[in-house]
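Annotated sample (chain length 159).
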Amino acid sequence: MCYKYLWDNLVVRDFPSKRLFEYFELNPRRNLCKDLRTACVDSGISALTIADVVICYQNMCKLLPRANDKLVLRYESQRDHSLLEEEKFVYEGSWIKNEIRICLEFWLGKREASSVDEEDQWKCGFCDFTSQCPAYIGDSGSTETLSEYDYSSDCCSVQ
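Output written by the structure step:
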């Protein structure tokens, strides 16, 4: 759902080029280096500056359609690319916006982390913060966790 949200925003909204240039301290009128100019020509883009590249990008995005609200998630074997499972679902814009908001609150330091749900505790085996997590009681690399622990308000997960 996040990819659809990003895609639809790229094709519907104006790209914030001024913010891009300011954030990365780019001079939009500076000429591209020879390698980038060649890459642009090879891609069918006539661009001499970064501003030209951004304008081409904006124009291309305006030509693209929004993604369908009916989404398909395909699980394929990495070995032979055979289909393992396919899930169909409908895009829920309000749900993904809420999930993004929750993540941003954590990343921006506006809320504490919380532990994963019981069915996702296997993720603790890959977490760099198990030594700081009160829900984690494993030792010697074990991924055991307290099953009776209240996971609703502690560390380890973004959500």
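Annotation: The beta strands are 70-76, 83-90.
Annotation: Residues 70-111 form one domain.
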